[in-house]
Amino acid sequence: MPRYLLEIRHSNEHEGCVRALEAIANFGPHLVTNAEFGCQDGVHTGWLIVDVDSHDDARRIVPPQYRNDSKVVQLKKWSKEEIQEMVEGLGS
After folding, report:
1. What is the 8-class DSSP label of residue 77?
2. Cα–Cα distance, 55 to 26 (Å, whole number)
3. Which pLDDT tens digit goes with each residue over 63-89?
4. What CATH number is given for 3-90 in this structure?
5. Can you tell me the distance from the alpha carbon of 54 to that of 61, in angstroms, rounded to the nearest whole number?
6. How far is 20 from 64, CA to CA, in rounded Å?
7. At 48, is the secondary structure helix, strand, or coil?
8. Model-wide pTM > 0.90
């Protein structure tokens, strides 16, 4: 199953952080326990990694009011062999 990184941005004032946390907690309580936030370091973004079938499924995990400003990125781990094949393909 594909793995996706969700990047949920919110406004940088205290109220923005509180509202984002509240929205995430209300939308899916399990999201809060799995999300990481950068607010205390001045980066007003939350990150969450999920295993779902598609970009659309991943985007639906984000509370509706934050979907337009969020990023959904499919993740992939490359094996040493895959990297070597790509490197060798450059020489052709």
Report:
1. P
2. 22
3. 999 999 999 999 999 999 999 999 998
4. 3.30.70
5. 11
6. 11
7. strand
8. no
Domain locations in the chain as residue ranges: 3-90
| 3-class SS string, 5-40 | EEEEECCCCHHHHHHHHHHHHHHCHHHHHHCEEEHH
Q: What is the CA radius of gyration of the chain?
A: 17
Q: pLDDT per residue over 2-25, tens digit each?
A: 999 999 999 988 898 899 889 988
- Cβ atoms of 14 and 21 within 8 Å: the answer is no
CA 25 to CA 28: how far, in whole Å?
A: 5
70's tokens: 């969020």
Beta bridge partners of 35: none
Phi, psi of 15 (to 5 degrees): -60, -35
Phi-psi domain of 42 (left: phi exceeds 0; alpha: psi -120 through 50; beta: other): left
Look up residue 89 and give its two tokens.
Answer: 């393909």
